[in-house]
C-alpha cells in the first residue's frame, strides 16, 4: 500500500473506531472526529485514491473554476461537472420563478422515494438545460455568491476594493519565498450567512524549503468518503501548478481537518472500500508550455498510470 493511500484509509478506520455520532445540517447524521492531520509527500506519486475511481477531470475543472475566480456553475456544466449543482438548484426551487413540483428536502427525499427521485431528476435536467442555454437564468440561479473563486480572486475589503489573494501569494512566493505570510483564506464571517455553502476548505498556507513548495490546508469540515479524496487531489494539483510557475519542486501537502465525518448513509460504501487493496499511485503531467496557472485549461492537466478499483456511488448530503 502506498503511504498516501494508507493515510486516507487510516482516517476512515479512525473515524469508524473512535468517532462520535452527531446530527448535522443535512439531517443525514454522521460519525465524526475533531482534529485530524495527514501529510502527503508529493514526490511519492500523485495522491489520487485508487481503492475507488475518483473522476480526476472533475477535480481539474473545479480547481480551474476556482482559479479563474468564477462562481457560476455554467462553466462547470460546460465541462460536464455536476459537483455544485445541488446548491444552485436549491436557489431555483426556493424562488418565486419555480413552478414545478415541491422539491423541499430533495437531498433526502430523492434517496428514499423512487417516485420523487424521478421528479427530482426531471427538474434537475430542466435546471441544467436552462443554465446552459439561458444567460439570464444562469446569471440569476447559477451564481453561488461568495464561494471559493470569489474569495481567492476578489476578496472584498472594508474600503470597497478587492484583493486577488491567489495572484498576490504567487508573487510573494517568487519574491520572498521565506515569508511566513504565504496564506490564502476563504473564510469571511461577513459572507457566511449569504454563501450557498460557507467554505469548508477555509485557509491554506505555502512554505518553501530546499527549493520545494509545500502546502498546508485547514479544512473546517470534511465529508471523508466523497469530499476528502477530491480535496486531497485538488490541493496537491494546486501545489504542483504553483510550484511549476515559480520554478520550484514539490514538497508535502499537509491536510488538517476540523470536523472529519462519515455520513451514516456512506457506511456500506466505506466498508467496501476498506476491503480493497490499494494500487500504485499515478503521476501528474502538466503542459509545461503554460507558464502561469491562470492560463491553464482542462486539457493542460492529465494523469498517467491511474488504474483504480471501480467507482463506489454514494449520495451527496445537501
Quick gist of this model?
Residues 8-318 form the Thymidylate synthase/dCMP hydroxymethylase domain. With 318 residues, the protein is α+β, with helices and mostly antiparallel strands.
Reading side by side through the largest sheet, how are the strands ordered? 1-2-8-7-6-5
Between the first and last Cα atoms, what is the distance in angstroms?
33 Å
What structural category do the secondary elements indicate? alpha+beta
Instruction: Output the radius of gyration.
Output: 20 Å
Helix count equals 11
The CATH superfamily of the largest domain bears the name Thymidylate synthase/dCMP hydroxymethylase domain
For this structure, what is the CATH class of the largest domain? Alpha Beta
- Find the count of extended strands (DSSP E, 2+ residues): 10
- At CATH level 2, the architecture of the largest domain is 2-Layer Sandwich
Averaged pLDDT: 94
Q: How would you describe the shape?
A: globular
Structure description:
By secondary structure, the chain is α+β, with helices and mostly antiparallel strands. It folds into two domains: 3-72 and 146-304, Thymidylate Synthase, Chain A, CATH 3.30.572.10; 85-143, no CATH class. Helices cover 38% and strands 21% of the residues. The protein has helices at residues 3-18, 56-67, 74-78, 85-93, 106-112, 114-133, 135-142, 148-153, 165-175, 227-246, 267-274, and strands spanning 20-22, 30-41, 155-156, 162-163, 183-185, 201-209, 212-223, 249-263, 283-286, 301-304. The strands form three sheets. Strands 1-2-8-7-6-5 form a six-stranded mixed β-sheet. Strands 3-4 form a two-stranded antiparallel sheet. Strands 9-10 form a two-stranded antiparallel ribbon. Strand 1 (20-22) and strand 2 (30-41) form a beta hairpin. Helix 2 (56-67) crosses helix 10, helix 5 crosses helix 6 (114-133) and helix 6 (114-133) crosses helix 7 (135-142).
Amino acid at each position: 500500500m502506498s503511504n498516501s493511500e494508507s493515510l486516507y484509509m487510516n482516517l476512515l478506520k479512525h473515524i469508524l473506531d473512535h468517532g462520535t455520532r452527531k446530527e448535522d445540517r443535512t439531517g443525514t447524521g454522521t460519525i465524526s472526529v475533531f482534529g485530524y492531520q495527514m501529510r502527503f509527500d508529493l514526490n511519492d506519486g500523485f495522491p489520487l485514491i485508487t481503492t475507488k475511481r475518483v473522476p480526476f477531470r472533475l477535480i481539474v475543472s473545479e480547481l480551474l473554476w476556482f482559479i479563474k475566480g468564477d462562481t457560476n456553475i455554467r462553466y462547470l456544466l460546460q465541462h460536464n461537472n455536476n459537483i455544485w449543482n445541488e446548491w444552485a438548484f436549491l436557489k431555483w426551487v426556493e424562488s418565486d420563478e419555480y413552478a414545478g413540483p415541491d422539491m423541499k428536502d430533495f437531498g433526502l427525499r430523492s434517496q428514499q422515494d423512487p417516485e420523487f427521485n424521478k421528479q427530482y431528476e426531471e427538474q434537475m435536467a430542466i435546471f441544467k438545460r436552462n443554465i446552459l442555454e439561458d444567460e439570464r437564468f444562469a446569471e440569476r440561479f447559477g451564481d453561488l455568491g461568495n464561494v471559493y473563486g470569489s474569495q481567492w480572486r476578489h476578496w472584498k475589503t472594508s474600503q470597497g476594493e478587492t484583493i486577488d489573494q491567489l495572484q498576490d501569494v504567487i508573487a510573494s512566493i517568487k519574491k520572498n519565498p521565506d515569508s511566513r505570510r504565504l496564506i490564502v483564506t476563504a473564510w469571511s464571517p461577513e459572507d457566511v450567512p449569504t454563501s450557498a455553502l460557507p467554505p469548508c476548505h477555509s485557509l491554506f498556507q505555502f512554505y518553501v524549503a530546499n527549493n520545494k513548495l509545500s502546502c498546508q490546508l485547514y479544512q473546517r469540515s470534511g465529508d471523508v468518503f466523497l469530499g476528502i479524496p477530491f480535496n486531497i487531489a485538488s490541493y496537491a494539483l494546486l501545489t504542483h501548478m504553483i510550484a511549476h510557475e515559480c520554478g520550484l519542486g514539490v514538497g508535502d501537502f499537509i491536510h488538517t481537518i476540523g470536523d472529519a465525518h462519515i455520513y451514516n448513509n456512506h457506511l456500506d460504501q466505506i466498508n467496501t472500500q476498506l476491503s480493497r487493496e490499494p494500487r500504485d499511485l499515478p503521476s501528474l503531467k502538466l503542459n509545461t508550455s503554460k507558464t502561469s496557472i491562470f492560463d491553464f485549461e482542462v486539457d493542460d492537466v492529465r494523469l498517467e498510470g491511474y488504474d483504480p478499483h471501480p467507482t463506489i456511488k454514494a449520495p451527496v448530503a445537501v
